User: What shape does this take?
Amino acid sequence: MRVASTLNGLTPRARKWLYLVLTAAVAFPISLLLTQSTVMASAISTVALALPIELTRLRAVKSLKAEREAWPIAIDHLISAVGSGISIPQALDDLVERGPDALVRQFKEIKDSIDSGVAFQDALRGAKRRFHTSAADQVLEVLIIARVTGSSNVGNILRTLGEFLRQENAMRAEIEARHGWVRSSASLAAIAPWALLVILSAQPTTRAAFSTSTGLYILILGVALTAIAYLWMNLVGRLPEVPRALV
Assistant: This one.
């Protein structure tokens, strides 16, 4: 519990650096034990630094996907509440208790802001920074406009927006599924040479070869090429996000 609270208290950048240091501290002695070579262990532990970076990226992607998929559900709750004659502020309050888990914290912060005396429009515009998708901007702006103008057509607008977001999520999921195996294959191809190096390090001739200046250059080149391949894989495999023009 104490360790978890300490990690939660760190900034994302500080947490990232902590993970990198811990990974290096664990990977180097294990690599040294397996290879019996300081040079080879240094190269392998350097490549292993990609592990916490990749885990952090996957965690961010998972969080973003959960928020993206939660918005159509939240919109359904809003449509139901507005159709029942409930005011928009009250509908947002209900989302704190009944809304999707991925958005509950943000809706709770919106509710606290309104309860503390912040104007409804200012509370929603300020809340945009707590979300990470363009869907949040669209929904919140619809609610702001409906609140200001008293539009009775907000239910139909939200329904259309919800259908559009569902179609977009389905299309994105299909593209991610088709490209997922390509990314997995690329990751395996980047890891395979280093796994082979660990296996070959059991032979004294391999350790001797990589202890020379030529072997050192080969290891440095391998680390550089692996890093370039990893960055290129992330760049090519990243799906574009809708710009957040309303932030």
Observations:
- The mean pLDDT is 86.
- Residues 142 and 157 are 8 Å apart (CA to CA).
- Residues 2-237 form one domain.
- The chain has one domain: 2-237.
